[in-house]
Amino acid sequence: MLKGILHFAHYLLEESIDEGEIVIDATCGNGNDTIFLSRVVGTSGHVYAFDIQQQAIQTTKQELEKFHRNNVTLIHGSHALIEDYVQHDVIGGAIFNLGYLPRSDKSIITKPDSTIEAIQRILTKLKKDGLIVIVVYYGHDGGTNEKEAVLKHVANLDQNLYNVLQYGFVNQKNNPPFILAIQKR
């Protein structure tokens, strides 16, 4: 049975992240991935969740309170600033959802430069066999530019150091999202 995009993203991360690890939600949005990561790393692990929109931080905070999750640090700022907030030497995994915050201002979007910078900063700290999962939504203004820049960047990662997977449904209409998964060797 083929897994949907978000289900497959979570499956990949759950298979590669261990309890007690430090992980990153680079775009916390409405909190779904943050809650998921919080459960995977357990009470001995920690999630750093970033978003540039206060609305996303507030929504995620409410979700964390609802599910009694207290192993998360919410950061109202760019994911490109990971090194300013995450002082740990090893990161167990990370997830990005590129695009805009659902049910909000569609002009506030992730940008190629900060996304690529964040990917690179995470890769320097990512554990061996760890994953960065990037869910690429691109059916909005600016989305195609980011998609192309990120695809070009990850396609040029050294194959001796990283495996890069692309997963998506090619027969769906309206710019279906797809996954890029980067595994550190």
Descriptive account of the structure:
The protein has six helices and seven strands. Helix 5 runs parallel beside helix 6. It has 185 residues and is α/β, with parallel strands linked by helices. The protein is 36% helix and 26% strand. It starts with a helix and ends with a strand. It is globular, with a radius of gyration of 15 Å.
Question: Care to give the gist of this entry?
Answer:
The protein has 185 residues and is α/β, with parallel strands linked by helices. The protein has six helices and seven strands.
Beta-strand residue fraction: 25-35%
Helix content: 25-40%
Q: Output the strand order for the largest sheet.
A: 3-2-1-4-5-7-6
- Total DSSP E strands: 7
Order of helices and strands: HEHEHEHEHEHEE
In the predicted model, the low-confidence regions spanning at least 5 consecutive residues are: none
How many helices does DSSP assign? 6
* Overall radius of gyration: 15 Å
Distance between the termini: 28 Å
Shape: globular
The chain-level structural class is: alpha/beta
Give the integer mean of the pLDDT values: 95
Largest sheet: 7 strands, mixed
Please name the defining characteristics of this protein.
single chain; 185 residues; alpha/beta; 7-stranded mixed sheet; 6 helices; 7 strands
SSE topology sketch:
Blueprint: H1 5-16, E1 22-25, H2 32-41, E2 46-51, H3 54-66, E3 72-76, H4 82-85, E4 91-98, H5 112-125, E5 126-136, H6 143-155, E6 162-168, E7 178-184
Parallel strand pairs: 1-2, 1-4, 2-3, 4-5
Antiparallel strand pairs: 5-7, 6-7
